[in-house]
Design brief:
- It is a single chain.
- By secondary structure, the protein is of the alpha+beta class.
- Helix 9 runs parallel beside helix 13, helix 16 packs parallel to helix 28 and helix 28 packs antiparallel against helix 29.
- It is elongated, with a radius of gyration of 40 Å.
- A 7-stranded mixed β-sheet has the order 5-15-3-4-6-13-14, with helices on both faces.
- Strand 13, helix 26 and strand 14 form a beta-alpha-beta unit.
- The chain has 29 helices and 15 strands.
């Protein structure tokens, strides 16, 4: 490039010097270091090597320099690549650049051909600079760029942008890099979108932040409105399609075109009914067909297939001869039954949406404290927490405070057990229906009878009561839980808590404010009783002791009087110690003080000081007994009822506490229950307990409550109790299919399929639906 200047220059003056020298050079062919295209360093042995570039490579390289608008490039251009020895002074100057400046130069080092402007390329290699003139641009435009080169360039540009985002100077010290950076990770190039101008599908809505509340609420209301309109529209079609068979059965007035005597008109009218039902339920059909195509059959597929099969039956009868409807009683249309199946599918969707709408005010409210309930996923930790209580695989629930409940939409509309059963019902129903059709067709020696039997089997394999199995129990549970400020967002809650056999809780949850009452106090040294109370309140507040509220009442709730506390340590069954104002404060029973070589009252004096039924706790400051506090503990009625419910459902309580008086025996005495249902968590598990139950900024859980022990217990117990109810209703649904197919096989073998005609089938399905609803109501009661 030019001779090296000896004096030290700033980076800006160096660039101006390079620019000035470049303008004075004769025009040369542009040399582009290979790292401009491949981002690799040139081999040190190839300084004088000439490289001939093909036409496509020229197009690719110049397009990369010019920008996306270039359309024409010349034929073959020979570029002379020269690599000169690095100037030691320039190398020192470049090292002074930070990574941001280096990246900026890397990205801005291009040549704008259209304007004729030139910017210098600063790299680790020295290149001969060429200024391309507008006249050369006109020559370049004689060459048409192929589409493959355009796509290749787009691909390179995306890759270059991704790599630039990870750009780090080689000379940058390792400690300056962000610990989350992974410079060695391979950049995954996104797939080229050849239709990027087309509008993208709107992303699915989710409740990710409080500002989304209004939009989510409006979306749910629209979903409810649409479900209701589809339900009503489908129900109207179902009623209209039922009138002709009802009128013919009970000799009611009916236009002749609606009777089987006008077979072709009759079939065409029912074909229109079927197409109308499909039109009203387009989202269900799209979902059902997509799931069927991907072999992920769901409840939409379960009710889509009967509708399609009944339409095919209608078309088949139109083709082979419609007079068979009038002449053969074993041949009849099943279109109304399929339409009512879609109506009940919309009823299920309406119940799901209604459940989400009822739950959303609690999830989005800022008036309540929100707690998320979950189960411990680490089996080893769960087993350690419940050792000595649960004698089978532990399923341990916990409750923790959260600032935000996320994934509300996900849990509210997540697939449930009805989808899981549908995955098996569809193929099983189709297989049995084929056998039924073959048997009936053979016995009647009639292909239309076989088609009718197959259609009946398909319809009866999609029972109307199927979606009641989850929808009705969940809605009834929501109504009950709303009185306790708790929610179950969907069936996932039942999945998580269905096997629950233990719950984590703290002693402070079992003894809320007002259950620990101060009966008296006594001072033992020159240390002020007021200071002793403040020191004790500070330590007890920091350790979440059940005595915290009692001491705060003594301080009239003045949290500003509390002092900083350091190094809180709990000693099993004895008490706690901590540092306050550089003084060691010990709070515990007489064993705690003896263990720390502190003089304590004799047992006789302690009995006189502490009446029967009360508890005593000592406070020692700087190794000297300072005060004793006498208090009583009583059960909270709401907590006692919750405990009784847990025990009746076979659930143990794992209690975390820092209070020496909280033992299994004391808990059993206060709450009048068996002490074996409790386990006091050892001190060595306090840290993992805090990690599991500590407050988090955001949590996603299908179970939430307001943090009260009773609300927490109601939520997890309701989820647990729902499981057998839902399983019973699912069994009922399967039973309706089995009994129906048995009846059909018997009638088919007797060539009496017509005895189980459309109205009988519909009545059969409605009876099972009513039974399912009644069982759900009885179980709730």
């Amino acid at each position: 490039m030019g001779s090296t200047k000896k004096e030290e220059l700033s980076f800006e003056s160096m660039l101006r010097d390079i620019e000035k020298q470049t303008n004075n050079l004769p025009e040369q062919k542009t040399a582009i270091p290979e790292n401009r295209m491949e981002e690799e360093k040139m081999d040190s042995k190839s300084k004088e090597k000439e490289k001939t570039i093909s036409k496509s490579e020229v197009a690719y390289s110049v397009r990369e320099i010019m920008g996306e608008e270039t359309q024409n490039l010349p034929g073959q251009i020979k570029f002379d690549l020269e690599k000169e020895e690095q100037n030691s002074h320039s190398e020192q100057q470049n090292k002074k650049l930070d990574s941001k400046q280096k990246l900026q130069e890397f990205l801005e080092s291009t040549t704008d051909i259209y304007s004729g402007k030139h910017r210098t390329i600063v790299t680790s290699h020295t290149a001969t600079i060429h200024k391309i003139t507008p006249e050369e641009v006109n020559r370049f435009r004689k060459f048409d760029l192929a589409e493959s080169q355009v796509l290749r360039y787009k691909e390179f540009k995306k890759l270059r942008k991704a790599k630039a985002a990870q750009f780090v100077l080689d000379t940058e010290p390792e400690q300056k890099r962000d610990p989350e950076d992974k410079p060695n990770q391979e950049v995954q190039l996104p797939e080229l979108d050849l239709y990027e101008d087309e509008p993208k599908e709107e992303a699915e809505l989710e409740y990710n932040q409080p500002s989304d509340a209004a939009e989510v609420e409006n979306r749910l209301k629209r979903m409810k409105k649409h479900s209701l309109l589809r339900l009503l529209g489908t129900a109207v079609l179902g009623l209209l399609s039922l009138y002709p068979p009802v009128a013919m059965q009970f000799n009611l007035p009916i236009p002749p075109v609606f009777t089987v005597n006008s077979s072709i008109t009759y079939l065409l009218i029912y074909l229109l009914f079927g197409l109308g039902a499909i039109f009203i339920n387009v989202p269900t059909f799209i979902s059902g067909l997509k799931s069927f195509k991907s072999l992920a059959v769901n409840r939409d597929t379960l009710y889509t297939i009967p509708m399609l099969v009944t339409i095919l039956q209608d078309l088949f009868l139109l083709i082979v001869g419609s007079d068979v409807l009038e002449s053969n009683p074993n041949v009849f249309l099943l279109m109304p039954l399929a339409i009512w199946g879609l109506a009940f599918r919309q009823l299920g969707q309406f119940m799901t949406t209604q459940l989400a709408i009822k739950n959303f005010p609690f999830v989005s409210s800022t008036q309540y404290q929100q707690y998320a309930s979950g189960t411990i996923e680490n089996n080893d930790l769960a087993a350690a927490f419940t050792k000595g209580t649960v004698n089978r695989k532990p399923y341990v629930g916990y409750n923790r405070k959260t600032g935000f409940l996320s994934n509300f939409i996900y849990y509210s509309f997540l697939e449930d057990i009805t989808d899981q059963f549908s995955f098996y019902l569809v193929p099983a129903g189709a297989g049995l229906s084929l056998v039924l059709g073959a048997v009936c067709g053979y016995m009647a020696n009639s292909f239309p009878v076989g088609i009718t039997a197959f259609t009946v089997g398909i319809c009866i394999s999609a029972p109307l009561c199927h979606l009641f199995s989850v929808g009705i129990p969940m809605l009834l549970a929501q109504k009950k839980l709303s009185r306790h400020s708790a929610v179950l967002l969907g069936y996932e809650a039942v999945q998580q808590f269905g096997n629950l056999n233990a719950v984590l809780t703290s002693a402070h949850d079992l003894f809320p404010k007002g259950t620990v009452v101060l009966q008296g106090m006594k001072s033992f040294s020159h240390y002020s009783i007021d200071h002793a109370i403040i020191d004790a309140a500070s330590v007890l507040n920091a350790s979440n002791s059940i005595l915290r509220d009692m001491f705060m009442e003594v301080l009239l709730g003045r949290e500003d009087l509390l002092k900083p506390v350091d190094s809180v340590v709990f000693e099993d069954t004895m008490g706690i110690s901590a540092w306050v104002d550089n003084r060691r404060v010990i709070i515990g029973n007489r064993e705690m003080l003896i263990n720390h070589n502190i003089e304590v009252l004799s047992e006789e004096k302690e009995r006189k000081l502490c009446p029967e039924g009360c508890e005593i706790v000592y406070i020692a400051v700087s190794g000297i007994l300072s005060a004793a506090f006498i208090f009583s503990v009583r059960a909270n009625k709401e907590v006692r009822n919750s405990l009784e419910q847990l025990i009746s459902n076979g659930i143990y309580l794992v209690v975390q506490t820092v209070d020496p008086m909280v033992t299994q025996q004391k808990l059993a005495q206060v709450f009048q229950v068996d002490e074996e249902v409790f386990k006091i968590l050892p001190a060595r598990f306090h840290e993992p307990y805090q990690k599991q139950t500590g407050e988090v900024e955001k949590d996603d859980s299908p179970v939430a409550n307001n943090g009260r022990f009773s609300s927490y217990v109601k939520a997890v117990l309701t989820a647990k109790r729902l499981r057998p109810t839902i399983y019973l209703l699912m069994t009922l649904s399967v039973a309706s299919i089995v009994f129906g197919l048995v009846i059909l096989f018997v009638l088919g073998s007797l060539n009496s399929l017509g005895d189980f005609n459309l109205l009988n089938l519909l009545g059969y399905e409605l009876v099972w639906a009513v039974i399912a609803a009644l069982i759900a109501l009885i179980k709730r009661a």
